[in-house]
Specification:
Number of strands: 8
Helix content: 40-55%
Radius of gyration: 20 Å
Order of helices and strands: HHHEHEHEHEHEHHHHEHHEE
CATH superfamily: Vaccinia Virus protein VP39
CATH class: Alpha Beta
Mean pLDDT: 78
Largest sheet: 8 strands, mixed
Low-confidence stretches: 1-15, 197-217
């Protein structure tokens, strides 16, 4: 790269699991995330998953566990809510947990001791790609698979979705959740080109750097829609809103709270060393996509939920 070009280069994309987990924790605690999710589980998940599984699979007994697979499970906060709702109709559950971050897996195991009963677990410290790649055609089939906010950087989305669908037992349901392309979050990634990971990753010049920083593609609900149509899989959709309190984004002084709020919205992009004008562009876009309540600002997030059913 010529010397004159170096000053114009944007920060290289780095996917930092620890940073993202901290940012999500900040989001879910400072906003109204779990309250919104619990309402959605009570009103929508129960009907679209629990009751439909009862219809598709028939009555279960203690000797026939419901088989569940969780992909990108994190600390288990969301999946435990799913499992507890499933237990209202299925008295015994066996769940396989696939999570690439060992610390998150440990946290999930600790949470299970407090919240989950009548459930057995198979813990898999793997990425989704590795787990899918290790599955054989005659592997165990699952009645319910959840993939919540884990498809953002899949290299081959169609292949992953087809593989997950193949892992379903007849009558089983695959739930995919991802941010909506048509609301504020999608707008943030559309109107600021410098934020797009595929743009920033072009600054990675050496093969060694490409190996540790593969060019990701930030996916939204639009790409999942397209993939499911191409695969001709049966599905229907729902959505729920989760406002995220971002008041600290606009603090004049840099702080951990400010950095975490920005980190969550911009995902793997490192903005702390970015040119000041780029950061100001980001903050202006975030404010434009937010509403003010009293002294606080809330970013308007919406998540799209795809319910994909395997025919019986």
């Amino acid at each position: 790269m010529a010397e004159s070009d170096k000053s114009m280069a944007r920060p290289i994309v780095r996917q930092d699991q620890t940073k993202h987990i901290k940012a999500f924790t900040n989001y879910s605690s400072a906003g109204e995330y779990f309250e919104a999710v619990q309402k959605w589980i009570d009103e929508t998940f129960y009907g679209h998953v629990v009751e439909k599984l009862v219809t598709n699979l028939g009555d279960r007994t203690d000797d026939i566990p419901l088989r569940v697979l969780g992909i990108g499970s994190g600390g288990g906060e969301l999946e435990i809510m799913f499992l507890n709702k499933l237990l209202t109709k299925f008295p015994k559950i066996h769940t396989c947990v696939v999570e690439p971050c060992a610390n998150s897996l440990t946290k999930y195991q600790a949470n299970v001791k407090e919240h989950a009963t009548n459930i057995t677990f198979d813990w898999q410290n793997h990425t989704l790609e590795d787990f899918v790649g290790n599955q054989q055609e005659n592997s165990l089939k699952y009645h319910f698979i959840s993939v919540c906010h884990s498809l953002y950087y899949m290299k081959n989305l169609n292949k992953v979705l087809q593989s997950l669908h193949d892992m379903l037992a007849p009558g089983g349901i695959l739930l995919v959740t991802i941010t909506a392309d048509y609301t504020c979050y999608g707008k943030l990634w559309k109107i600021i080109p410098d934020l797009k990971p595929e743009t920033a990753s072009q600054q990675v010049s050496s093969p060694a750097e490409r190996a540790v920083s593969p060019p990701p593609h930030h996916r939204t609900s639009a790409q999942v829609h397209d993939a499911l149509r191409q695969l001709q899989l049966q599905y229907h959709i729902d959505a729920y809103a989760c406002p995220y309190k971002i008041t600290h984004c606009f603090d004049e002084e840099e702080s951990e709270e400010r950095n975490q709020a920005i980190d969550f919205l911009t995902l793997p992009i490192t903005l702390r060393d970015a040119p000041k004008d780029l950061l100001q562009q980001v903050l202006a876009c975030i404010k434009e996509c937010s509403v003010q309540r009293g002294n606080d600002w809330f970013f308007q997030l919406e998540h799209v939920c795809f319910f994909i059913t395997k025919p019986t």
